[in-house]
Amino acid sequence: MIGSMNVARAAIEMAMTENRDIEDKMVIELKKKNIKAVAVNIGGNLIDSIPKIIERALVASRRTGVIKECHVQDGAVAGAARDAIVQVSAKATGLNVGGKIGIARHEEHLSVCIFMSIGLLHLNDVVIGLAHRSLPRE
Fold first, then answer.
1. Residue 117 burial by CB count (10 A; 0-12/13-18/19+): exposed, middle or buried?
2. How many Cβ atoms from other residues are within 10 Å of residue 8's Cβ?
3. What H or E segment, with its residue span, contains residue 100?
4. Staple 15 to which of 6, 20, 30, 113, CB 3.0 to 4.6 Å?
5. 104 and 111 in contact (C-beta within 8 Å)?
6. Which residues of 60-93 are buried (b: 16+ CB within 10 A; e: fewer)?
7. How is the subunit organization of this protein annotated in UniProt (predicted)?
8. If we measure between CA atoms, which residue out of 120, 110, 102 comes closest to residue 41?
């Protein structure tokens, strides 16, 4: 049985992929488990980038069929993305970041993970944020 832990793990793994080829292979493997997933690159000043990060998460989720275009599912992705951003913002506020958002869904379970590097001169830090939402089954 696939539950919220499995979906969260899939979102984390998608966010940690190193390149597009690995992403594509992982999407195929997850699809075999009936988990829909997508990853999106993000970067820039965190505070200035928040609306763009949420928008990119929504667009990618719709485009790949992780969610349908409706306000309930849009709200779930946007809310989870925002929660994940809040988790990393304490370390990244005002600094440049670069990384990836991983989004995964199985039936009513939706997870969004943000995995990024925070640049400060030559001293980089790494942060991760994870949020979960429940959606009605399709």
1. middle
2. 20
3. strand 96-106
4. 113
5. yes
6. bbbeeebbeeeeebbebbbebbbbbbebbbebbe
7. Homohexamer.
8. 102
Identity of the residue numbered 4: S
In a structure prediction context, what are the per-residue pLDDT tens digits for the chain, which is 138 residues long? 899 999 999 999 999 999 999 999 999 999 999 999 999 999 988 888 899 999 999 999 999 999 998 999 999 999 999 999 999 998 888 888 999 999 999 999 999 999 999 987 677 889 999 999 999 877
Name the DSSP class of 79. H
Which amino acid would we find at residue 120?
L
Domains of the chain, CATH where assigned: 4-134 (3.40.1510.10)
* The overall pTM is greater than 0.70: yes
Q: What tokens appear for 36 in the block?
A: 């829909």
Sequence-distant (6+) residues with CB within 8 A of 59 are none
